[in-house]
Design brief:
220 residues, alpha/beta, D-Maltodextrin-Binding Protein, domain 2, 2 domains, seven-stranded mixed beta sheet, 8 helices, 33% helix
Length: 220
């Protein structure tokens, strides 16, 4: 979750970790498919939010540092029943940019060609369009939705429903330099152990989704 001033939980966490290591960061933002190419071309020192779909050399990967869960969100007063991706096909849906590429073949195949489906880079606009009743459902990360909805007092009393159609997914960073990678892992563990990781989640009002995972060795 990133704003024009390069803020948000993920970027703030990574900035703080690297500051602890004695480094500044200069974030750049690229489409989903370009990350692996930039790493291969040695164009970046660190790539964030990496999972298996990026096909990155696993020896470059750090420990898990963040967890996302994409959900479909609807207004509670609409009383919409959505228990599968197919239930979205007769509804107007706005998803985050590249959703049809990253949410799996079933999602992309079912929705990407429908006239009632669009993708949008501005996730604050997604939330506004849902809350104002302009669209039936939006698809985005649950914590990003909670953060953006909470920023607008106008939506404080409007209840919403999360439809958990997608798995919880932990992400790693890719860092080709082995010394830098090990220092990142060590500092990340320090942030987790001394409470700074949770404090940053609390600052943004975010749920710690690591607590919903059953995988070993991923809990902060």
């Amino acid at each position: 979750m990133v704003s024009a001033d390069h803020s948000g939980f993920e970027i703030d966490l990574v900035r703080a970790i690297f500051a602890e290591m004695g480094h500044d960061i200069s974030p750049i933002y690229v489409p989903f498919g370009r990350t692996a190419r930039l790493l291969k071309d040695d164009a970046v020192d660190v790539a964030l939010t990496i999972n298996d779909s990026h096909k990155v050399d696993p020896t470059l990967l750090t420990d898990f540092y963040i967890v996302y869960q994409n959900v479909a969100v609807t207004r509670a007063d609409r009383n919409l029943v959505i228990t599968s991706i197919q239930d979205l096909t007769d509804k107007s849906v706005i998803a985050f940019q590249t959703a049809s590429a990253v949410l799996g073949e079933e999602f992309g195949g079912a929705l990407s060609s429908l006239p009632t489906y669009i993708e949008m880079a501005r996730q604050d606009r997604q939330v506004n369009m849902l809350m104002l009743g302009s669209v039936d459902a939006i698809v985005l990360d649950r914590n990003i939705f909670n953060f953006l909805k909470a920023r607008n007092d106008m939506y404080a009393n409007d209840e919403t429903v999360f439809h958990e159609l997608f798995p919880i997914t932990p992400y790693r960073a890719a860092i080709p330099d082995p010394t830098l990678r090990e220092a990142f892992n060590t500092t990340l563990r320090l942030f987790i152990e001394d409470g700074r990781y949770q404090a940053l989640l609390d600052k943004y009002g975010l749920e710690n989704l690591f607590n919903k995972l059953s995988l070993p060795d991923v809990h902060p």
